[in-house]
Every structure is written in structure tokens, then in C-alpha cells.
């Protein structure tokens, strides 16, 4: 019989950490799985280390040359025998009950297509780093809304329905942001979730893809942002896409207040028309972004004026804490003006 879960591990020159990653799967409390390792043209000892393991649940495929993550992930999608595909990067470590937790979630919630969870951050030695947790939203609607702005999944924690990935034709050419683009497409069509559980130890080191391919990532995410705007029937220019992208980077000084106001107004009107997200929750999320942008501007003098913009402001959105912060900033601005 086919296994319930295919655990997928892409491996490229992964000799330093892959042994620990494999062990974390072989010692799972849930054992009805195959571990499908796709070696992407490694030139180090990756294959030799994999061959040291004799567990029959391990299946190894090799690309003839280094093809990259999109190709390699789609090899897995073609070859997977499991009803579900669980991703684990070759430098990360799965918590012992990770597969059991996610499998039980899918059995209980069959309408969901994707499930992830929180992660602990470790360094190259396996020690926890100071800021040691990757926390993701767990409310299903909030996950979908937040995906519009940034990735709401830790890739090494995700488990998919295999049939859904095949229906959507797998990963597209958006590496190294191919996972974010796929999550968006899945969430546009199916319910998605994050468990309020730590599922992996995520290894942060100098060879992470996010570090080595940061420039390419910027270009690909800009493409994703343009597509997101188009899917909302917003025909924005490059300036609007750049403004949209700055929210993902949490760089609120990258564009003018007018740029952000234009973006948020368009997003608000698009959602009113398409009814893609719960209206009040979505508009509150837009306002919270607006508040953070105002808070981080170099010029604070007119903070209250901007805060009360009629396109974004409602009294019910403003928390007492937010009002106090904005008022203090405005007083400081007026004080500088009068001095």
C-alpha cells in the first residue's frame, strides 16, 4: 500500500546538515511515510551520507545536473506516492510529532489543502538563536489576508494535499520565492491553516537561499506583487508594485505617504467589490499598516492629520495605545515647530 505521507527533501551540497534532518524524520511518532530525497546534482558527500541510512522508507532520486528548486520540487510532485506531501529542507529538523500533528489535522479538517506551523530558529551548531521563534498567524482568515502582504508559512513546516498540488500544476518559475507564490495560489482556492504548534527547528546560516539569492528574490516577489494586484483588478504601475513590496520588507520609509494611501485605497475598494476577505477585518489590517507607516516616518508633525484620513480611518479601528502614540508624536512635532 502507498504511504499516507511523502516527506520531501531537496538536497544540494547538503553534507553538513542532512544526516540530522533525515534522522528527525526516521524517528517521527507517525511512521506511515516515505522519505523522498531528490539530490539536485550535489558535488559534495551528500549522496554518500544518504546511503549510510538503510531504512526502506527512504527513496532517493537524482537529477543529472543541478536544476534548481522549482524543477526539483516538481520532481517530487510527480514521484510522490503519499496522499499528503510534507516539506522538510535538508538543513532543518522536524519535531518528533510533527507528521502526526499535521496528519491528524487533515483527517479532522478534510476541506483544508495546506497546513503549516511555527518554527524554532537554530544556528549552524544547532543552538537556539536569541530571537528564537518563527511565529505565524493561526486564524484561517487572517492567514489568507496576511498572505496578500507577506508569506504566512514557514516552508519547512508545510504539508499539502498531493492532489491539490497536481491540480495547480505544482511550483512555477518564481524561485527563490516559489513557495510564497504557490501558497497564494492554494489559498485563493482552498482553506489553509497553521497549527499553533512548533513543528520544526529552522536552521539560519550563511548558505540559506534567502541570503544567497536576495537580489533575485526581490525581482521575483515584485512579479508576484504585480500579479496579486492584477488578480484584484487593480491596474497599478511599477510604483504601486514597489510600494506593495515595501510592506513585505517592513520598509515603511521606502515610498511617500501618498503612494501608501493610493495603494491602501485601491486595496480597500477592490475588496469591497470582490468580497475576497471579511470587509471589517481587512480594512482594520490596512489601517494597522497605515498606522505603522505614520509612526515610522521621519517627519512626525502631521501624524494625527494623516492618521485620520477618511479613506482609511474609523474610530473603531483605533486602539487607545495607537492613539496615545500618535498624539505624543504630534505633540513633539508641534514642539519642534514652535521652538
Number of helices: 14
The biggest beta sheet reads: 9 strands, mixed
How many strand units? 9
Decide which structural class fits the backbone.
Answer: alpha/beta
Task: Round the mean pLDDT to the nearest integer and report it.
Answer: 91
**Head-to-tail CA distance between termini:** 79 Å
The CATH C-level name of the largest domain is Alpha Beta
Number of domains: 2
- What is the CATH architecture descriptor of the largest domain? Alpha-Beta Complex
**Element order, helices and strands?**
EHEHEHEEHEEHEHHEHHHHHHH
Structure characteristics:
339 residues, alpha/beta, Spore Coat Polysaccharide Biosynthesis Protein SpsA, Chain A, 9-stranded mixed beta sheet, disordered C terminus
Concise summary:
The protein has 339 residues and is an alpha/beta fold. The protein has helices at 18-26, 46-51, 69-79, 98-108, 140-147, 162-167, 178-189, 209-212, 214-231, 238-249, 257-274, 279-296, 303-307, 320-338; strands at residues 5-11, 33-39, 58-62, 84-87, 93-94, 114-122, 128-134, 159-161, 192-203.
